[in-house]
Amino acid sequence: MIDIALDRSIQAARILVVDDLATNVEMVAGLLDVGGFPNVTGTTDSREGLALAESGAYDLVLLDMRMPEIDGAEFIRHLRARDLRQQPAIVVLTAQTDTETRRTALQAGARDFIIKPFKIWELLQRVRNALEIQILYRQAQEFNNALEMRVEERTQELHETRVDVIRRLAAAAEFRDNETGQHIARMSVFAHHLALKAGLPESEARSIRDAAPLHDIGKIGIPDAILLKRGKLDGSEWEIMKRHAEIGGEILAGGASPLLDLARVVALTHHEKWDGTGYPHGLKGEAIPIAGRIVAVSDVFDALTSDRPYKPAWAVSDAIAFMLDNSGNHLDPTLVGLFHRELPAILELRERFRDEAPAKQVPPS
């Protein structure tokens, strides 16, 4: 037995009758009304019928095949070619009995075929069958759309959870490093802006922004005596400090998340240098992943212009001069040029994420 809600949907369906003979339109509309389908519109102009069908206001079109202006086959093909949110079902209603007409209509996209003259019960039953299929199909589409939205929402929730974990891990490293509170936020938004200006897609730029906070996660494994030392590190201390890049890579290795994998790449490569003299692997030029190069430029600028245990903050002009001097040896020259060009926007971002007590800027010694 048909579901009551479905039965009501069928009875409430909107039907369009397109036939070049007014008597046929009136007859079919009258039979449908008597048979329990009151929402019927009819037209003898196939051009008007096509416009009505394209409006998305109808569930079913009863269509004649031989009509002036636009015949049935052309009508169907034109309608099916449109990317409509709701395509109506089409049932051909014609006196043509030859096989070729049937084939043409069905291949064009008609769902069923009714030959004139027809029995009233046959018309009503075929209309009912076509509408039942159409309504169930639309319900399935709505369910799939709702399911896709739920999957997207869940995917977004998982992404936000991963980003939150990254921020918390970064905060843990930051507590040990005693860096300025907003360093992680600033260099991350610098990296996002620079990635976009370098031509990366928004999705990739966002991933770099979200992965950047873990660039120095490996410092968790560096002894406090070295990490928090005021003043210059000696040779052996510096070798231990450099280990933080590999430690970060080890901490983030083996994750199933693309975001954590990108964070691992950033942690491993943001201290590589354009000329190949960086660490831990001595990568050179474009062999250094773009994410590592972008984070390096962003990190250097904010590190220079922030107070650290081993130095006061540099003036912005001195930091930019240093970066330009090191363009092509330490830093990617193209990215440094972009960063310099975008400095007004960078400074706006810097102001938005400035520390509560801004450090006094002094020139480098």
Relevant terms:
alpha/beta, Hypothetical protein af1432, 15 helices, disordered C terminus
Gap from first CA to last CA: 89 Å
**Biggest sheet architecture:** 5 strands, parallel
Global outline? rod-shaped
Largest beta sheet: strand ordering: 2-1-3-4-5
Reading off the top of the CATH hierarchy, the class of the largest domain is best stated as Mainly Alpha
Q: Mind telling me the C-alpha Rg?
A: 34 Å
Count of beta strands: 5
Mean pLDDT over the full residue set: 86
- Which residues sit in consecutive blocks of at least 5 with pLDDT less than 50? 357-365
Number of helices: 15
Structural class: alpha/beta
What portion of residues is helical? 55-70%
CATH superfamily of the largest domain: Hypothetical protein af1432
In CATH, the architecture of the largest domain is Orthogonal Bundle
Pattern of helices and strands: HEHEHEHEHEHHHHHHHHHH
Q: Do you know the CATH topology of the largest domain?
A: Hypothetical protein af1432
Can you give a write-up of this model?
This protein has 365 residues and is an alpha/beta fold. It folds into two domains: 4-147, Response regulator (Rossmann fold), CATH 3.40.50.2300; 178-352, Hypothetical protein af1432. The protein is 58% helix and 6% strand. It is built from 15 helices and five strands. The chain has helices spanning 4-11, 22-34, 46-54, 72-81, 99-108, 120-177, 183-197, 202-211, 224-227, 235-252, 258-269, 290-304, 316-325, 333-341, 343-352, and strands at residues 15-18, 40-43, 60-63, 89-94, 112-115. The longest helix is centred in the middle third of the chain and has 58 residues, at 120-177. The chain is rod-shaped, with a radius of gyration of 34 Å.
